[in-house]
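Fold this sequence, please.
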Amino acid sequence: MAQLRKSARKSARKSAGRRKNLLIELGTEELPPKALKNLAQSFAQNFFDGLVMSGVAENKPNQYKYYATPRRLAVWVKGVSPKQPDQIEQRTGPTVAAAFDHQGNPTAAAQGFAKSCDVPVSRLKKRVSDKGAWLVFENKVKGKNLNVLVTQCLNDSIKALPIPKRMRWGNNDVEFVRPVHWLLALYGSDLIRTEALGLKANRFTRGHRFHCSGTLKIPSADRYLNTLKLNGFVIADYQTRQLMIVKQITRLAKKANAQAVIGQNLLDQVTGLVEWPMASLGEFDQKYLKLPKEVLVATMVDHQKYFHITNQKGKLMPLFVSVSNIKSKTPKRVRQGNERVLRARLADAEFFWNTDQKVKLHDRVDSLKGVLFHHQLGSIYDKTIRVGRLAGVIATKLNIDKKGVQRAARLCKADLVTDLVGEFPQLQGTIGKYYATKQGEDKHVADAIDGHYKPRYANDKLPSTPLAQCVALADRIDSLMGIFAAAEAPTGDKDPFALRRAALGVLRIIIERKLDLDLFELLSRAMKQYVNSDLKNIDTSNAVIDQVFEFTSERLKGYFQAQGFSAEEIASVQACKPTKPLDFANRLQAVSHFFSKRRAAAESLASANKRIANILTQANLDNDIKFNNKLMTAHAERQLATGVETISKEVKGYFITNQYDKGFDKLSALKAPVDKFFDEVMVMHDDPAIKNNRLALLIKIRQLFLGVADISRIRIETGNIQGDCNGE
C-alpha cells in the first residue's frame, strides 16, 4: 500500500511539471444583465472547484478568473495537470475477528466481502488502529485524462448555475438561461475534446456583434483577452470593463464641472449590457428640473440606464451620461438619439405629474376598491380601512395624535392609482408625499405617506415620525396576519409577499424607535378585524396568531446576532417568551452586560440555574408549592433563604420597571449563598417535607432569574464550572 501511494505521489509530481493554463468559454445570446455577474462567478467557481476535487488544479488564491460579457461566460484556470493522479481506493470489510475462525480459516463474512470486491481473500489486507483491526481492500484506480474531467466539471457547473427559469431553443432538449451557440475549450494552445449543451468544443469565438464579423481563432488560453480586444472589439474581463465605464463617466462629468452619481446596481447592469463601452454626455431641458428629483432619477436610471449628474453641492443638473455598446463614427448622432428618447420620457412624466394633481388624494381613495390586495383578503381599500383602525390603536397606546394617524393611514395608498406611480411603481409613497404636500395636507401626514414604506430593504432607514411609525407597523402587521390567515406563509426560500422583510421591519421599528408595544397584543387586534369581516376561506383561529408571533420572533435571532449577541444569550431570553420586542432587547442587553461585567458571578449562577432546572425537572414538583421557614434545618439553607427574601422584592421591582441591569446586580449577591447551599445541603432529603421545602426554595430562586432570562441555557466551560451538570 505504501509503495502504491508513493507511486501515486511520484506520478502527481511528474504530471505537475507539465501543467498548463485552461480556458473554457460558453458563447450565448445576450444574457440578462442583472444576473450576468452572478452567473459568471458561479460558473467559474463551480468549474474550478470541480477541477480541484478531481486533483488536477491547486486550491490556491488567484488560481482562476472569470470573464463575462453579454454574449459569453468564460473561466480561465492556472496550472492545470493534463491527467488526474492515480488513486488508491480503499474499502473496509468485516473485523479480523469476524473474518477468520479459530483455525485461521476465512469465514463467510470474509469470503462475501472478497467476492464483492471481485478478488480472493488472499488479496485482502488488514488495517489496524486503536479501535481494532479490519479487513480492507485496496485498489489502484488509474487517473482520468483532462478531456474527461473537463467534460464532467463543465456539465456539472452548468447544472449548478443559479438560473430560476431555463429555456430551450430549436429542436434541442438542452436547457440554459439563453441559447448557446459556441463552445471554446483550450489547454494551453491545445484544443480540448469536450462537449456541453449539445455543442462540441473548438478554438473559435466571436467578437463584437457589430464591429467584428465572422469568428475569431484563439491561439492559446493566455491570448484570449488580447485577441478579443485587438481583433474582436470585446473587453471580456468584467472588472476591467466596469473600470473603463467608471473612468469614462467620471471624465465626462469632470469636463462639465460636475460629478456623476454611479450606483453599483446600475453600474453592474450597464457593464452587463456592453462589450465595448463608449460613454457620452447628454443634456435635457432645464424646465424638467421642476419635476421631483426622484422622478427624473427614475426616468434616467430605471428606464434608460443613464447616469445622472449633480453639481458639487449635490443638486441635480440637466445632464446625463449614457454608455453605448458601439464605437460610432458619428458620436453626435448617438448623443442626440439618447437625448431624444429621454426628452420623450420626461415629457410623459411631466404630463402625468400635471394631470395627477387635478384630483385630490382623498378623492382617489374610493378608487382603491378596484385594486386587489389579495384574492382572499379583499382590495387595497379594504386593507387601508384595517390599517387605519390598527394604526389608531397603536397611536392610543403611544399617546400620539390619533386623528393624524388615521388620516395618514387613509391616504397612504391613494397614490397607487395615480398615473405617475403607474409609470414608476418604485416611487409609490414618494409621489403621494409630494401630492399631499401640494394639496395642503399636514406635513406629518404627508411624511407618513412616504415613511410608512420604510424600511423598504435591509439596512434601510426607519420611518422618522411617530405618525409614519404607527402606519408602518399597522400596514406590516395587517399583511402578516392576513397572508398567514390565507394559508400562504413563506416556505423554504419562497416568500412572494416579502413577509420575512415585513416581520423584520416591525421588529426594527419597535426596537430601534424604542416603542413600548406588545407585539402579541397587536397581532391579536389585527386578527380581530379579520374575524369581524365578511372575508371567506381564511383561518382566524388563535393558532394563526401564535404562528405569526413565532414567525416574527424567529427574526430576532438573526437581527441580534448581527449586533454581536451570542445565540445562547438570545435563546436564554427567548425561553421566557417576552411579547414586547423592546423588552426583549432590554433583557438581552442585561444578560450580555451581566456576563461581561460580572463574569464570575454570572458563570456560577448560570451553572447553579442549570443544576436547579435539572433537579426540579427530575422532582416534577408543582411550582405553586409554598416555602416554609420552619422546615429549614441547615445553616446554609437559612443563609440562602434569608438572601433570597432580602433581595426578592427589590429585584422584582427592578424587573417590573425594566431595570434589568440593576436586578442582575442584586442577583449576583446570591452567588456565595447558592454555592454554599449546594456544597453543604442535600436537596433530596429522606424526609419528604424537608425535601419539598428545599425544592420550593429552589423554585423561588429559579423564578427570580426567569424574570429576565433562563441563563441556564448559557453553557459555561470556564475552570471547573460546567453549564451542563446534571442533578446533584
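The first strand starts at residue 20 and ends at 28. The two ends are 53 Å apart (CA to CA).
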